[in-house]
Design goal:
It is a single chain. The protein is α/β, with parallel strands linked by helices. It has a single domain, classed as Spore Coat Polysaccharide Biosynthesis Protein SpsA, Chain A. It is 28% helix and 20% strand. The protein contains 7 helices and 11 strands. The strands form 3 sheets. The chain has a 7-stranded mixed sheet, sandwiched between helices. It has a two-stranded antiparallel sheet with strand order 2-3. A hairpin with a 2-residue loop joins strand 4 and strand 5. It is globular, with a radius of gyration of 17 Å. The protein starts with 8 loop residues before the first strand and ends in a 26-residue tail after the last helix.
């Protein structure tokens, strides 16, 4: 029997933009022919009734079954994407992840989303604080109560997600709590460089060569990169 979908929480996938370190727009990566953000959204759709893709290229997702929206504050980075997702979501809370974080662990997603609902009156954000003191703002749950703070930050050109986590009532998860889900390295793995993209694609693609030829740029969005694109 399939587990019931979670009420009161939507999912948001930040589809990002051009990455200097990766040398490409990472949302154009395809896995077995499917755009990586849509693949993530399809997985999240087994948990959430609503999945939203936030992108600066909505035409990429013309055939998707998920909601597609653009930023209200353009060129504002992940904080702008969270703002757009929270503004558009029909639920009070949103689980936020990014298209370059492909290791979706559904038991973890359900666990953190249920925790957010249980602690709804005590916190506005649930996010990871690493043992080294750094924050991880993705794979986190945000309440719509954060919107006024986020809007003010964006209007003041303050885009640091860490500032949002310290300015709101944030319940911080620990690395020890996440050990049962495979640990933070796996849960929060993100593809930042061509080599990381290549290695990930080589693991998940059937007969995928390590040169990652299937990390394709869509027409009109070709970027100079050391990776071989087709």
């Amino acid at each position: 029997m399939r587990a019931a979908k979670i009420n009161g929480v939507s999912a948001v996938v930040l589809c990002g933009g051009k990455s200097t370190r990766a040398g490409m727009d990472k949302q154009t990566i395809r896995i077995n022919g499917t755009l990586i953000a849509e693949r993530i959204a399809d997985e999240l759709a087994s948990v959430f009734r609503e999945v939203i893709l936030v992108t600066n290229h909505p035409a990429f997702y013309a055939s998707t079954r998920h909601r597609v929206i653009e930023d209200v504050f353009h060129e504002a980075g992940p904080l702008g994407g969270i703002h757009a997702g929270l503004s558009a979501a029909t639920a009070e809370r949103v689980f936020v992840t990014a298209c370059d974080m492909p290791n979706i662990d559904l038991p973890f997603v359900r666990w953190v989303s249920r925790m957010a609902k249980k602690q709804a009156n005590r916190c506005d954000v649930i996010a990871l604080k690493l043992d080294n003191g750094m924050f991880e703002p993705m794979n986190a749950v945000y309440s719509r109560r954060c919107l006024p703070c986020i809007t003010q930050m964006l209007e003041e050109n303050n885009r640091k997600l860490g500032n949002l986590l310290t300015a709101t009532r944030t319940h911080f998860l620990t690395e020890a709590q996440l050990a049962r889900f495979g640990g933070t390295e796996r849960l929060f793995f993100n593809m930042n460089t061509p080599l990381e993209i290549q290695h990930y694609l080589a693991k998940v693609e059937i007969n995928c060569p390590v040169n990652a030829e299937n990390a394709r740029l869509l027409p009109g969005d070709r970027i100079q990169t050391t990776m071989k694109m087709i």
